[in-house]
Amino acid sequence: MHADTLHSQSEFHLQMNGLLFSLLTWQQLTEFWARVDRSAGWYLYAVGEAVPTRPASREQVDRFIAELDALLRRDHHESYCGIVYANDLNSPSFVKIYDPNHLGSSCGSGKNPPPPPGWIMSQIAPVELHLKYTLPANRKRWWQTLFHPE
Protein backbone atom coordinates (compact mmCIF):
# COMPACT_ATOMS: atom_id res chain seq x y z
CA MET A 1 0.00 0.00 0.00
CA HIS A 2 1.13 3.55 -0.72
CA ALA A 3 2.31 5.57 2.31
CA ASP A 4 -0.38 8.26 1.73
CA THR A 5 -3.09 5.58 1.79
CA LEU A 6 -1.75 4.11 5.04
CA HIS A 7 -1.55 7.58 6.59
CA SER A 8 -5.14 8.33 5.54
CA GLN A 9 -6.33 4.99 6.97
CA SER A 10 -4.57 5.57 10.27
CA GLU A 11 -5.94 9.13 10.46
CA PHE A 12 -9.44 7.81 9.80
CA HIS A 13 -9.10 5.18 12.56
CA LEU A 14 -7.75 7.82 14.96
CA GLN A 15 -10.81 9.97 14.29
CA MET A 16 -13.18 7.00 14.43
CA ASN A 17 -11.88 5.81 17.80
CA GLY A 18 -10.83 9.17 19.20
CA LEU A 19 -12.52 11.65 21.49
CA LEU A 20 -15.88 12.68 20.08
CA PHE A 21 -18.51 14.94 21.62
CA SER A 22 -22.18 14.01 21.71
CA LEU A 23 -25.03 16.21 20.60
CA LEU A 24 -27.38 15.43 23.46
CA THR A 25 -30.45 17.45 22.56
CA TRP A 26 -32.39 17.90 19.35
CA GLN A 27 -31.80 21.66 19.65
CA GLN A 28 -28.03 21.09 19.83
CA LEU A 29 -28.28 18.94 16.70
CA THR A 30 -30.22 21.66 14.84
CA GLU A 31 -27.60 24.26 15.81
CA PHE A 32 -24.77 21.86 14.94
CA TRP A 33 -26.06 21.20 11.40
CA ALA A 34 -26.12 24.98 10.83
CA ARG A 35 -22.38 25.14 11.67
CA VAL A 36 -21.33 22.32 9.31
CA ASP A 37 -19.43 23.74 6.33
CA ARG A 38 -21.18 22.04 3.41
CA SER A 39 -18.26 22.82 1.07
CA ALA A 40 -15.52 21.39 3.31
CA GLY A 41 -14.92 18.22 1.27
CA TRP A 42 -17.05 15.71 3.14
CA TYR A 43 -16.94 12.00 2.41
CA LEU A 44 -20.40 10.62 3.17
CA TYR A 45 -20.25 6.96 4.12
CA ALA A 46 -23.15 4.63 4.93
CA VAL A 47 -21.52 1.78 6.81
CA GLY A 48 -22.32 -1.44 4.96
CA GLU A 49 -22.38 0.30 1.57
CA ALA A 50 -19.47 1.03 -0.75
CA VAL A 51 -16.81 3.34 0.68
CA PRO A 52 -16.89 6.70 -1.13
CA THR A 53 -13.88 7.44 -3.30
CA ARG A 54 -14.37 11.21 -3.51
CA PRO A 55 -15.95 13.95 -1.42
CA ALA A 56 -19.61 14.77 -1.91
CA SER A 57 -20.76 18.00 -3.53
CA ARG A 58 -22.20 20.83 -1.45
CA GLU A 59 -25.67 19.89 -2.73
CA GLN A 60 -25.18 16.25 -1.74
CA VAL A 61 -24.09 17.28 1.76
CA ASP A 62 -27.13 19.59 2.05
CA ARG A 63 -29.45 16.79 1.02
CA PHE A 64 -27.72 14.22 3.24
CA ILE A 65 -28.01 16.44 6.32
CA ALA A 66 -31.67 17.29 5.64
CA GLU A 67 -32.70 13.69 4.95
CA LEU A 68 -30.62 12.23 7.78
CA ASP A 69 -31.96 14.75 10.28
CA ALA A 70 -35.53 13.84 9.27
CA LEU A 71 -34.74 10.11 9.56
CA LEU A 72 -33.17 10.50 13.02
CA ARG A 73 -36.08 12.55 14.35
CA ARG A 74 -38.60 10.07 12.91
CA ASP A 75 -36.88 6.84 14.01
CA HIS A 76 -35.21 7.79 17.32
CA HIS A 77 -38.18 7.69 19.68
CA GLU A 78 -36.52 9.60 22.51
CA SER A 79 -36.87 13.14 23.85
CA TYR A 80 -33.10 13.55 23.40
CA CYS A 81 -30.71 13.00 20.49
CA GLY A 82 -27.46 11.50 21.86
CA ILE A 83 -26.64 9.44 18.74
CA VAL A 84 -24.60 12.00 16.78
CA TYR A 85 -20.96 12.57 17.75
CA ALA A 86 -18.39 15.01 16.35
CA ASN A 87 -14.71 15.72 16.89
CA ASP A 88 -15.49 19.43 17.26
CA LEU A 89 -18.97 20.81 17.91
CA ASN A 90 -18.17 24.22 16.38
CA SER A 91 -16.03 23.32 13.39
CA PRO A 92 -16.30 19.56 12.80
CA SER A 93 -14.22 17.52 10.39
CA PHE A 94 -15.50 14.10 11.53
CA VAL A 95 -19.07 13.13 12.47
CA LYS A 96 -20.28 9.70 13.53
CA ILE A 97 -24.05 9.05 13.42
CA TYR A 98 -25.65 5.96 14.89
CA ASP A 99 -28.67 4.31 13.30
CA PRO A 100 -31.57 4.53 15.78
CA ASN A 101 -32.67 1.05 14.71
CA HIS A 102 -29.29 -0.56 15.57
CA LEU A 103 -28.03 1.08 18.73
CA GLY A 104 -27.09 -1.89 20.90
CA SER A 105 -25.12 -0.80 23.94
CA SER A 106 -23.64 2.60 23.21
CA CYS A 107 -20.85 2.30 25.77
CA GLY A 108 -19.91 -1.29 24.99
CA SER A 109 -17.23 -3.37 26.67
CA GLY A 110 -14.53 -5.83 25.67
CA LYS A 111 -17.16 -8.58 25.31
CA ASN A 112 -19.76 -6.36 23.69
CA PRO A 113 -18.12 -3.54 21.77
CA PRO A 114 -20.48 -0.79 20.59
CA PRO A 115 -21.98 -1.30 17.15
CA PRO A 116 -20.46 0.59 14.25
CA PRO A 117 -22.21 3.83 13.36
CA GLY A 118 -24.79 3.89 10.60
CA TRP A 119 -23.21 6.85 8.83
CA ILE A 120 -19.98 8.80 8.87
CA MET A 121 -19.18 12.28 7.58
CA SER A 122 -15.43 12.69 7.29
CA GLN A 123 -13.03 15.10 5.66
CA ILE A 124 -10.54 12.20 5.62
CA ALA A 125 -11.22 9.39 3.13
CA PRO A 126 -12.96 6.62 5.10
CA VAL A 127 -11.95 2.98 5.23
CA GLU A 128 -14.40 0.11 5.07
CA LEU A 129 -16.11 -0.82 8.31
CA HIS A 130 -18.00 -4.07 8.68
CA LEU A 131 -21.46 -4.61 10.13
CA LYS A 132 -22.27 -7.60 12.30
CA TYR A 133 -25.76 -7.63 10.80
CA THR A 134 -27.18 -7.39 7.31
CA LEU A 135 -28.00 -3.84 6.31
CA PRO A 136 -31.82 -3.69 6.23
CA ALA A 137 -33.41 -3.23 2.81
CA ASN A 138 -35.14 0.00 3.86
CA ARG A 139 -31.78 1.56 4.82
CA LYS A 140 -30.20 0.41 1.55
CA ARG A 141 -33.10 1.96 -0.41
CA TRP A 142 -32.93 5.17 1.63
CA TRP A 143 -29.20 5.54 0.93
CA GLN A 144 -29.47 4.65 -2.76
CA THR A 145 -32.37 7.05 -3.43
CA LEU A 146 -30.57 9.81 -1.51
CA PHE A 147 -27.98 10.18 -4.27
CA HIS A 148 -29.73 8.42 -7.15
CA PRO A 149 -33.37 9.57 -7.07
CA GLU A 150 -35.60 7.74 -9.53
Structural features, described:
With 150 residues, the chain is an alpha+beta fold. It has one domain. The protein has four helices and five strands. It has a five-stranded antiparallel sheet with strand order 1-3-4-5-2, with helices on one face. Strand 3 and strand 4 form a beta hairpin.
Largest sheet: 5 strands, antiparallel
Indicate the low-confidence ranges by residue numbers. Answer: 105-109
Could you give the order of the helices and strands?
HEHEHEEEH
Q: Helical segment tally?
A: 4
For the record, the count of structural domains works out to 1
Radius of gyration: 15 Å
What's the count of strands? 5
Strand % is: 5-15%
Query: What is the share of helical residues?
Result: 25-40%
The overall pLDDT, averaged over residues, is 85
Q: In terms of structural class, how would the helical and strand content be classed? A: alpha+beta
Net shape: globular
Arrangement of strands in the largest sheet: 1-3-4-5-2
Q: What is the straight-line distance between the termini?
A: 38 Å
Features:
4 helices; alpha+beta
How are the SSEs ordered, and which strands pair?
Blueprint: H1 3-17, E1 21-22, H2 26-35, E2 43-46, H3 58-75, E3 84-86, E4 94-97, E5 119-122, H4 137-147
Antiparallel strand pairs: 1-3, 2-5, 3-4, 4-5
Q: In short, what is this structure?
A:
This protein has 150 residues and is an alpha+beta fold. The chain contains four helices and five strands. 36% of the residues lie in helices and 11% in strands.
